[in-house]
Amino acid sequence: GQQLNQSPQSMFIQEGEDVSMNCTSSSIFNTWLWYKQEPGEGPVLLIALYKAGELTSNGRLTAQFGITRKDSFLNISASIPSDVGIYFCAGQRGTSGSRLTFGEGTQLTVNP
Amino acid sequence: DGGITQSPKYLFRKEGQNVTLSCEQNLNHDAMYWYRQDPGQGLRLIYYSQIVNDFQKGDIAEGYSVSREKKESFPLTVTSAQKNPTAFYLCASSRTGANTEAFFGQGTRLTVV
Predict the structure, then answer these.
(1) Residues contacting A25, CB < 8 A, separation 6+
(2) Interchain proximity A30–B42, CB inside 8 Å
């Protein structure tokens, strides 16, 4: 099955720094979702995007649905230690209950 | 509370035995999914179901089986035919249609000993 290209694979940053990660695909998606997963837990939905060009914020998190509908970006501002985890993008192509395609994740480490 | 419940959290199985992982949701979602996650990797789709009594194979269905007799429940059986079953298994559910969001359970870590 198709995987989204998510980058970077890992990031090591200092507390207070901003973080940016992205997902790209050769296919068009109608929905982009961003999840965070902590060790031993299921992914938790952070932000959902439904329209090309849409920019949505959730606290210190901001995500954008790329205008070409083939990419999406997630930014985290002023990182804190509890931001540590794996961040996944997911895309949905169809309009009728079609399955999600996931990126391979970005492992974020925040040093205090 | 509304949500998705997976049980058990940890499961140990002897090689050659079948084992069934439970997934229950009370979100009234039509669609349910099973994913497998290996260390340092993303999520791979095993099976999914968009309606009761119907399900489709995902990308890595070999060695697995599912049933969807009730809307709330989507159990996954890891059979002895699965060559490398040790992994973290995640169940999710969503509404069907456009602009849907999938919500995940807490996962079951299966270890074959």
Answers:
(1) A2, A4, A5, A70, A71, A91, A101
(2) no
For A45-68, what is each residue's pLDDT tens digit? 999 999 999 999 999 999 999 999
Contacts of A88 in chain B (CB under 8 A): 42-43
Q: Which two tokens stand for residue B75?
A: 């159990």
Q: Which of B98, B75, B73 is nearest to B18 (CA)?
A: B75
Judged on CB neighbours under 10 Å (0-12, 13-18, 19+), A65 is buried
A88 to chain B: closest CA residue? B42
- Chain B hits for A104, Cβ within 8 Å: 41-42
Confidence at B28, pLDDT banded by 50, 70, 90: very high
> In chain B, which residue's Cα lies nearest the Cα of A89?
B42
pLDDT at B104: 96
Q: How far is it, in rounded angstroms, from Cα B23 to Cα B19?
A: 13
Question: Chain A residue with minimal CA distance to B38?
Answer: A104
